[in-house]
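Example 291.
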Amino acid sequence: MKIQHFFDSDTFTLTYIVSDESTKDSVIIDPVLDFDPPSGRVRDQSIQEVLKYISDNHLKVRAILETHAHADHLSSSQILKQIFPEAILGIGEKIKVVQEVFRGHFNLPNLKTDGSQFDRLFKDFEEVDFGSLKMRALPTPGHTPACMSYQFGGNVFVGDALFMPDYGTGRCDFPKGSAKDLYKSVSEILYSLPDTTKVFVGHDYSPGGREMKYQTTIGESKSSNIQLKIETSEREYVDFRTTKDKTLKAPRLLLPSIQVNIAAGHLPDLEENGKSYLKLPLSIELKSGKL
Ligand SMILES: [Fe+2]
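Predicted structure in complex with fe (ii) ion:
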C-alpha cells in the first residue's frame, strides 16, 4: 500500500491518495477546492497535482472519502466525480445530523437531509472494499458529530480528530460538536489501535514555525499529544478544550465551506443569470441602535 500526501498551504489541509501498487486501485481522501472569498473565485489548482499523480501512476480511483463536512476548505469531490464517475463518494452516515443543523442555520429549505448527495454513507465500524483496498470506518465524532476516521491496514486517516502531537486535537465548538465525544473517540477508538499504527492528520499548522508534518503514530500520540495523552482524564481534556475553543476565531472559510460541503461539494444551483451564490447569514450584535 502506498500513501501520498498533498498539502494545501492556503488552508493547511492535507489530501491523501491511498493506492495498491499492484492492482492500481486507489482512494482519494479530503480533496480541496480553492476558494477566494473577497473575489468569490473558485479554482481547481489544488487538485491538479492530485490528478497528475493519478495519471502518472495509472491509478484507478475507486472512492473519494470525506472524513467530515469541513469548515475550513471547500471539497473538490464533485469535480473528481466528473472525472472519475465510477468512484464512490462516501462520508459518515451522521452527515444527516450536520445537514439538518445547517439547513436551519442557512435557511436552505431545498437541502435534502438524508445524505443522498453522497453515494455512500458509512455506518460505525463498517468495512468496505474499494477494489483491493480494505477500509474500516471508525467513528470519531467530537469535532463534528459525523467525523469518521478511515483505517486501511496499519494506517488511519483521522481528519481533525487528532493532529500532530505538538498541535493536539480538533476544536469541538461547532454545532453538535462535543469535547466529551472527541475524548471518547480518541481515548477509546483511536488509542485502542496498535501503537505502531500510522496516523495521517487532516491539517498541519506548523506550530512554532517548524516544517510541515503530516504523519505520526498512535504510540506517539498516546505518549506526547500535548492535549490528549493516554493518561489525560476526560475532565482535564473537556475543561481544556472548552476553554480553548472560546478563544478561537471562526475559520476564514467557515460559511462558504459548510454550505458547499454539506451538499457533497455541489455549489448552490445557478440562478436565472447563470451565476451561483453563497449565503452569508448575519449575526447582528449591536450595543446601540437597530438595523
Ligand atoms: Fe474540520
